[in-house]
From TrEMBL, chain A:
GO terms for biological process: protein neddylation. The gene is UBA3. The keyword Transferase does not apply. This is NEDD8-activating enzyme E1 catalytic subunit. PANTHER family: NEDD8-ACTIVATING ENZYME E1 CATALYTIC SUBUNIT, UBIQUITIN-ACTIVATING ENZYME E1. It comes from Sparus aurata. GO terms for molecular function: ATP binding; NEDD8 activating enzyme activity. Belongs to the ubiquitin-activating E1 family. UBA3 subfamily. The keyword ATP-binding applies. Keywords: ATP-binding, Ligase, Nucleotide-binding, Ubl conjugation pathway. InterPro entries: E2-binding (IPR014929), ThiF/MoeB/HesA (IPR045886), ThiF_NAD_FAD-bd (IPR000594), Ub_act_enz_dom_a_sf (IPR023318), Uba3_N (IPR030468), Ubiquitin-activating_enz (IPR035985), UBQ-activ_enz_E1_Cys_AS (IPR033127). Pathway: Protein modification; protein neddylation. It holds the Pfam family E2_bind. The lineage of its organism: Eukaryota, Metazoa, Chordata, Craniata, Vertebrata.
TrEMBL record, chain B:
The keyword rRNA processing does not apply. Pathway: Protein modification; protein neddylation. GO terms for biological process: protein neddylation. Regulatory subunit of the dimeric UBA3-NAE1 E1 enzyme. E1 activates NEDD8 by first adenylating its C-terminal glycine residue with ATP, thereafter linking this residue to the side chain of the catalytic cysteine, yielding a NEDD8-UBA3 thioester and free AMP. E1 finally transfers NEDD8 to the catalytic cysteine of UBE2M. Residues 12-512 form the THIF-type NAD/FAD binding fold domain. This is NEDD8-activating enzyme E1 regulatory subunit. It comes from Sparus aurata. InterPro entries: APP-BP1 (IPR030667), ThiF/MoeB/HesA (IPR045886), ThiF_NAD_FAD-bd (IPR000594), Ubiquitin-activating_enz (IPR035985). One of its GO terms (cellular component) is cytoplasm.
Length: 462, 518
């Protein structure tokens, strides 16, 4: 069929065009050609007045970047695609990419390593294939996995890690992982154990890029207040006094769906299923009509259900480019890296603001000291749980709390396993004294936001 | 075809939420010209092809070299086309100079022309042709770790600027008749607790404003602040002195300050009212100015000094009915005001023989809704920037007073252009040239400063650095500029969001940037 041939014809033509440019070089790498790295070499082989104090011009840096330097890209979406391309074209030929998602049609307006025919396939795999086939010599190894599925042996092999994630939880986990790799000799940080983390984020026309040297500069958790928690509509508004079309949509999603189970028992609302969205849309319209609310559209319905964040190619291109520049600077020592946070916004003209985010003394992730938490012995465990989830500096999702009571390790509360949740739920309404906890005692808290257990010291107030 | 339309909606969903279907339409009707398919050029075009511009044409007379793999006219066109089958691509294997010699009108057909890595002479020639033809021109250059953009457009109007933090238009300081009536319909003192705690804060503030109106003499700051205090106290306690703890009252306190911002025409809009285009309307005048003039007439007459009511209110604690009723009061007033503005538009159109349908109701409504946020961007021509008589000396010297200013890079780029004019090459391209070129470039710098009588000092370090760059076009800097320039082009095409004016410099060394007026 002609249609099926077209993409394949195009792909062959592209490979042909790329191959046309390849000339057998004389240095043993038959994917190199005269002048290929001229742009890059000027920065690696020439001295200059603004270079990093440690920089030594050398012809070996390019080989290091091409042969040895290993970069990990987290995310193969809007930022990830751009990062892979920028890094590959800048001379980094050993790259791994991790992404747990598959390709969706709505990705195609900016995630340019993917085509219509790739919808449904894993992003990491398709991205790696694309780069490997178009950029001679580049080797991208994909991992169709969650970042939490990989361990420290995996992460330890990289020189630099760049993140193009769309979730704060994932960022914090990555942050925590790199902090856990740090080695201290007699309290002194071994610089060899530091893996620089470059983090990019975008939303519509806004974005930011930051450089984190774990153990040395501000980490993700040091600046948690820069990521304000997502605001949800109050239940009473949704249930009894809607005013906006969004309230009507949340009503259909949160209250009608569980009650009416329109597609069967136990069938969870799938934002990617047009039939599900259509159902929510219709019920939202009915709800809105009841209250004379206008503005419910299919597009709005989808946006609310999936918590869609608008996105364009341009912002992702800018932020990924800034991140890739930092990777180059750090790998080559050619220039002093960004110190350490840049914000970008092109709604009105183009605006950037660059500043040094400061380390927080009592940062929950990188300060290495158990954090004090102050409660009266008559406070209930629920209050401790609320503190862990609601405090702006912690923002935990579903913390599991354990403590040593009378010499034994006791799980005070754990949400993620149903049976344990049931068993420990009564503890929430017991006081800390009733649970047998003592002043200055340590509590261990585990949560998705950190790969390592966090230690807190319980300080009783009178 | 219905199927294609649905799949386009899916594909473009994430960007449609930013510029809407009407914005997307302008993109799909646009024809973009890119001159020079270098790394920077192809990055810019990629970021325009992906969101679905109608068509592009690459003009590039260069042949393939080892450095720029797959970046020349035909190769680039094919590679870019493959990114999005909705877009048609064309190429012209000709240098822009040749085209300017033989067929300058070639460029008139484009919605915007983007010129990348152009030597100064070509840039100025092109600038002049495009200025006369009123075709927007975006000049881009990646030079080492520096990115440069220059927008050249005579007049660019923006109705939908989508400001980030817009103040609400609530008219609490001058309630219109229907709003006043609506406020009267509430009697807070006789309401039951449920109604009382679900009354919109706008009504609460309006009620207490009435009570305190005799002290609201806004001439004297002291009295103004004491009236705020009166409102706060009034809100916090009911008649029996029992403090209120209702959320809607808390919202009222939180919002009192901003709600009492005097309703007035923003100075930017006043400036537009006073401009020539607004006052000298002819049959050639663009609809933007016709509508603006109509709004001005409204402000001077029916509006009593105020713009048409915007018609939107923020969400607030309230029961559905009270909120919807209040919202409708504002909505209806907005519709009324828009209809009045429409009459003024009709009058104006008739006065120079144009049918009233030339400007649609929909457009007028959109215009009125955005009346506070209208923007017009005007850039000087390249000729003005480069002429000794009109160079912006003040901007240059005042920026150069600050040692961290990006202005030094602008001057270095100008000096490098001079070097190219003199030596037919850029400084430091080959290693053996670097050292000698430093002195040659320094001469160009001094020559530049002298010609424009610029009493500024450029450190030798920058001259050395620009020789070091050797006219390199590193990919990450090209990609940064690629994203930036593409979005500016989208702003020009869609007339949504505000373009920069008129020079943008990006410094990848420090990850800083600046916008300069040159």
């Amino acid at each position: 069929m002609a249609d099926a041939d077209e993409p394949e014809k195009k792909r062959r033509r592209v490979v042909e065009l790329t191959e046309k440019m390849v000339v057998d070089g004389g240095d043993g790498h038959n994917c190199e050609w005269e002048g290929r790295w001229n742009h890059v070499k000027k920065f690696l082989e020439r001295s200059g007045p603004f270079t990093h104090p440690d920089f030594e011009p050398s012809t070996e840096s390019l080989q290091f970047m091409l042969d040895t330097c290993k970069i990990l890209v987290i995310g193969a979406g809007g930022l990830g695609c751009e990062l892979l391309k920028d890094l590959a074209l800048s001379g980094f030929h050993n790259i791994h990419v991790v992404d747990m998602d598959t390709i969706d049609v709505s990705n195609l307006n900016r995630q340019f390593l993917f085509r219509g025919k790739d919808v449904g396939r894993p992003k990491a795999d398709v991205a790696a294939d694309f780069i490997n086939s178009r950029i001679p010599g580049c080797c991208v190894i994909p991992h169709f996995k969650k970042i939490q599925d990989l361990d420290e042996t995996f992460y330890r092999q990289f020189h630099i890690i760049v993140c193009g994630l769309d979730s704060v939880v994932a960022r914090r986990w990555m942050n925590g992982m790199l902090l856990s790799l740090l080695v201290y000799d007699d309290g002194v940080l071994d610089p060899g154990s530091i893996i620089p983390l470059i983090d990019g984020g975008t939303e519509g026309f806004k974005g930011n890029a930051r450089v984190i040297l774990p153990g040395m500069t501000a980490c993700i958790d040091c600046t948690l207040e820069l990521y304000p928690p997502q605001v949800n509509f109050p239940m009473c508004t949704i249930a009894s006094m809607p005013r906006l079309p969004e309230h009507c949509i949340e009503y259909a999603r949160m209250l009608l769906w569980p009650k009416e189970k329109p597609f069967g028992d136990g069938v969870v609302l799938d934002g990617d299923d047009p039939e599900h969205i259509q159902w929510v849309y219709q019920r939202s319209l009915e709800r809105a009509a009841e209250f004379n609310i206008t503005g419910v559209t299919y597009r709005l319905t989808q946006g609310v259900v999936k918590r869609i964040i608008p996105a364009v190619a341009s912002t992702n291109a800018v932020i990924a480019a800034a991140c890739a520049t930092e990777v180059f600077k750090i790998a080559s020592s050619a220039f002093i890296p960004l110190n350490n946070y840049m914000v970008f916004n092109d709604v009105d003209g183009l605006y950037t603001y660059t500043f040094e985010a400061e380390r927080k003394e009592n940062c929950s992730a990188c300060s290495q000291v158990p954090l004090d938490m102050h409660f009266s012995p008559t406070s209930k465990l629920q209050e401790v749980l609320d503190y862990l989830t609601e405090s702006a500096s912690l923002q935990m999702k579903s913390p599991a709390i354990t403590a040593t009571v009378e010499g034994k390790n006791k799980t005070l509360y754990l949400q993620s396993v149903a049976s344990i949740e049931q068993r420990t739920r009564p503890n929430l309404s017991k006081t800390l004294k009733e649970l047998g906890l003592a002043d200055r005692q340590e509590l261990a808290v585990a949560d998705v936001t950190t790969p390592q257990t966090m230690l807190f010291r319980l300080c009783f107030t009178s | 075809m219905a199927a294609t339309k649905a799949s386009k909606e899916q594909k473009y969903d994430r960007q449609l939420r930013l510029w809407g279907d009407h914005g997307q339409e302008t993109l799909e009707n646009a024809h973009v010209c890119l001159i020079n398919a270098t790394a920077t050029g192809t990055e810019i075009l990629k970021n325009l092809v992906l969101p679905g511009i109608g068509a592009f044409t690459i003009v590039d007379g260069h042949t393939v070299t080892g450095e720029d793999v797959g970046n020349k006219a035909q190769a680039a066109t094919e590679l870019l086309q493959e990114l999005n089958s909705d877009v048609s691509g064309n190429f012209v294997e000709e240098s822009p100079d040749k085209l300017l010699d033989n067929d300058p009108e070639f460029f008139h057909r484009f919605t915007i022309v983007i010129g990348v890595q152009l030597p100064e002479s070509t840039c100025l020639r092109l600038g002049s042709v495009l200025w006369s033809a009123a075709v927007p021109f975006l000049v881009c250059k990646t030079y080492g770790l520096i990115g440069y953009m220059r927008l050249v457009v005579q007049e660019h109007t923006v109705i939908e600027s989508h400001p980030d933090n817009a103040l609400e238009d609530l008219r609490l300081d001058q309630p219109f008749a229907e709003f006043k009536n609506h406020i009267q319909s509430y009697d807070l003192d006789s309401m039951d607790k449920k109604d009382h705690s679900h009354t919109p804060w706008i009504i609460v503030v309006a009620k207490y404003l009435e009570k305190c109106v005799f002290v609201c003499v806004l001439l004297y700051n002291e009295m103004f602040f004491s009236s705020l205090q009166c409102i706060r106290e009034g809100i916090l306690k009911n008649e029996n002195g029992v403090p209120e703890d209702e959320e809607n009252f808390e919202e009222a306190i939180k919002n009192v300050n901003t709600a009492l911002n005097p309703t007035k025409v923003p100075s930017a809009v006043e400036d537009l009212f006073n401009s020539v285009q607004c006052n000298d309307i002819t049959s050639q005048t663009l609809s933007f100015w016709v509508m603006l003039r109509a709004v001005k007439e409204f402000v001077l007459n029916e509006g009593n000094g105020s713009l048409p009511v915007r018609g939107t209110i923020p969400d607030m604690i309230a029961d559905s009915q009270k909120f919807i009723n209040l919202q409708n009061v504002y909505r209806q007033k907005a519709m009324q005001d828009a209809a009045t503005v429409s009459k003024h538009v009709e009058c104006l159109l008739q006065s120079f023989g144009k049918p009233p349908e030339s400007i649609s109701e929909k457009d007028i409504k959109l215009f009125c809704k955005n009346a506070s946020f209208l923007r017009v961007v005007r850039c000087r021509s390249l000729a003005e920037e480069y002429s000794v008589d009109s160079v912006n000396k003040d901007e240059i010297t005042s920026c150069m007073d600050n040692p961290d200013s990006e202005m030094v890079f602008y001057l270095m780029l100008r000096a490098v252009d001079r070097f190219y004019q003199q030596h037919s090459r850029y400084p430091g391209v080959y290693n053996y040239q670097v050292e000698d070129d430093i002195n040659k470039l320094k001469l160009c710098v001094n020559n530049l400063l002298q010609e424009y009588s610029l009493n500024v000092n450029i450190k030798d370090d920058y001259i050395h650095e620009f020789c070091r760059y050797g006219a390199a076009e590193p990919h990450t800097v090209a990609a940064f500029l690629g994203g930036s320039a593409a979005q500016e082009a989208i702003k020009i095409i869609s007339h949504q969001f505000v373009p920069f004016s008129n020079t943008f410099i990006y410094n990848a060394m420090s990850q800083t940037s600046a916008t300069l007026q040159l």
